[in-house]
Amino acid sequence: MDASGPPDIVVVAGGTAPSRSIVVPSSTFVVAADSGVALAQALGLRVDVAVGDFDSLDADLVARLDDLADEVRRHPVDKNATDLELALAVAVERSPARVLVVGLEGGRPDHALANVLVAAAPAFASLDVELVLDRGEAWVVRDRLVGAWPAGTTVSMLPLHGAANVSIDSVRWPLDHVTLAPGTTRGISNSTTAEGATTVTVHDGVVICIVPRIVPQSVPLTTESNP
Predict the structure, then answer these.
(1) Residues 166 and 91 occupy one common structural domain
(2) Which pLDDT tens digit goes with each residue over 54-86?
(3) Of these four, 33, 111, 133, 220, which has the most CB atoms within 10 Å of its CB?
(4) 163 and 60, same structural domain?
């Protein structure tokens, strides 16, 4: 997976708007999870599928759902999955695909943590998932991630759902087939050593690779027309 590659699908959750500029092709398939419908509208994104129980969406928007989305999939409030999990399940229907998740943060911390974990769940292994964070970016890595980050960029790796055997190069502390146990902080705060490609390879397991940004920039997500 190329860290800078364009998404096939944008999943809009119900948190805060992204704090950096994101350009996606106008043909990108958009799935909005519950109040992500409002965020998608604020970002100027036409929603292909709206999914959720819509208990967090303003009543006037709920009444207009059929006009705001090409397809609406309603679920009961008493359900066994978060709205983001339901949205990722929609994305799986179009897999394999690269998925960009926005609006992940800004609400309840338990939801935010659960949604990071669900993005790395085995059910979504057919998706390459990138998460836009308020102060950084993150990628769910099951095989390989290549990032052309500037020298001195902080790169952290955390194993999810069990141990992960990983390698990383072009960093201050390279790793070669090192097993990161659950709960370890060994993969935190590495740093790229040169301009060019840094490669994260996951030989077994799954990790979340996080590149934090110290100062976010308040600029919106935008679309671009296909050539």
Answers:
(1) no
(2) 999 999 999 999 999 999 999 999 989 999 999
(3) 33
(4) no
